[in-house]
């Protein structure tokens, strides 16, 4: 990304809060950790321009108007909007001079921060608009409060709140039906069908015909809502069922493969090892020894 660059006008009110944290070695090796956290009431010249900072940034707009320029796009930010960016990339954010921006924010890193960010960005935009019931503002306030009163609990609690925050950010990018349910009715029917018939051989064409949907639309929608293609979902269900039989029965590996819907034992062992990171026999020895 090149060398670190930052330009800024630190133009905020006297009652604004900015806390700089120095994470311990334990936090860096184990937790999500706060680098900076704060609550700003900006003044007219406030801005930050930056790149190549090893940090992730989440900013929530409490009031007023701000502007974020990121990945070549400028976003206008208003109340109840939040953005999530990778500070290695170029970013420029500033207040509107007439509708002064009030924001609460956290710079953080550690654990699998990048994985969460990449998952979030599958949404296609760094900016989300929250509804009034969102817990994100409350979590950011908790992060600020716990870092104001530093003690032995600060780092583990900060990590907990960051996990909560990142989880909410991911959930907020997930599609939702008008009735509040997550899965559309037609996808729920297909999921239920595959749950009942995962031991059978079902082609994508057959599944699409049975549910009166094009196979290309089925593939796209099923992946969008479940995280799996239909074939991946069936394999997942078969492996899960095989794990149950390996733990709670004395059936042979061949019998378990067949009951799970896979007649080729070698293929079953390959798929199992690929997804569970051990052979079916090793899994049985491990888990039957526990019970």
Give a concise summary.
It comes from Brevibacillus centrosporus. With 291 residues, this protein is α+β, with helices and mostly antiparallel strands.
Structure commentary:
The protein is α+β, with helices and mostly antiparallel strands and about 290 residues long. It has two domains: about 5-170, Regulatory protein AraC (Jelly Rolls, Sandwich), CATH 2.60.120; about 185-290, Homeodomain-like (Arc Repressor Mutant, subunit A), CATH 1.10.10. The chain contains eleven helices and eleven strands. It has helices at about 25-30, 115-120, 135-150, 155-170, 185-195, 205-210, 215-225, 230-250, 255-260, 265-275, 280-290, and strands spanning about 5-10, 15-20, 30-40, 45-50, 55-65, 65-70, 75, 80-85, 90-95, 100-110, 125-130. The strands form two sheets. Strands 2-3-10-5-8-11 form a six-stranded antiparallel β-sheet. It has a five-stranded antiparallel β-sheet with strand order 1-4-9-6-7, with no helix packed on it. A hairpin with a 2-residue loop joins strand 6 and strand 7. Helix 2 (about 115-120) runs parallel beside helix 4 (about 155-170) and helix 3 packs antiparallel against helix 4.
Helices and strands, with pairings:
Layout: E1 5-9, E2 17-20, H1 25-30, E3 32-41, E4 47-51, E5 56-63, E6 66-70, E7 73-77, E8 81-86, E9 91-95, E10 102-110, H2 113-120, E11 127-129, H3 136-148, H4 154-172, H5 185-197, H6 204-210, H7 215-226, H8 230-248, H9 253-259, H10 265-276, H11 280-290
Antiparallel strand pairs: 1-4, 2-3, 3-10, 4-9, 5-8, 5-10, 6-7, 6-9, 8-11
